[in-house]
């Protein structure tokens, strides 16, 4: 059974309701009991393939401001997250400072 979001046109408040296909009860606002409600478009998530995620990151990288260290840090964190390898702040600073050994645990 889906959960739908509604907005009351009387009190202008939003609420959610679990709706069954056999539900014959008239829909009323849970705040003011008005029957003047409209269903809202709910948000949804879409699973992206790794290729789609990398394409989106590549587009961001092309337009990134390479003179802004804060933007570079954010981009590096997003890239590591998309790859499934979280990067620590120390590793990130080492990379940005040009330390080739930052984050290398192996010899």
Q: Could you characterize what this model shows?
A:
It is a single chain. This protein is α+β, with helices and mostly antiparallel strands and 107 residues long. The chain has two domains: 3-39, no CATH class; 50-97, no CATH class. It contains three helices and three strands; from the N terminus they run E-E-E-H-H-H. The chain has helices at residues 50-63, 69-82, 89-97; strands at 3-8, 14-18, 37-39. The protein has a three-stranded antiparallel sheet with strand order 2-1-3, with no helix packed on it. Helix 1 (50-63) packs antiparallel against helix 2. Mean pLDDT is 77; it is low at 102-107.
Short overview:
This protein is α+β, with helices and mostly antiparallel strands and 107 residues long. It contains three helices and three strands; from the N terminus they run E-E-E-H-H-H. Strand 1 and strand 2 (14-18) form a beta hairpin.
What string, H for helix and E for strand, traces the elements in order? EEEHHH
What do the pLDDT scores average to? 77
Overall form? elongated
Major sheet characteristics = 3 strands, antiparallel
């Amino acid at each position: 059974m889906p959960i739908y979001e509604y907005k009351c046109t009387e009190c202008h408040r939003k609420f959610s309701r679990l709706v069954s296909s056999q539900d014959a009860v008239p829909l009323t606002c849970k705040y003011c009991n008005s029957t003047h409600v409209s269903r809202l478009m709910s948000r949804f998530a879409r699973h992206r393939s790794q290729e789609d995620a990398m394409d989106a990151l590549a587009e961001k990288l092309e337009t990134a401001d390479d003179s802004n260290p804060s933007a570079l840090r954010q981009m590096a964190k997003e890239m590591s997250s998309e790859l499934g390898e979280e990067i620590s702040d120390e590793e990130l600073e080492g990379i940005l400072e040009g330390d080739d050994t930052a984050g290398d645990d192996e010899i």
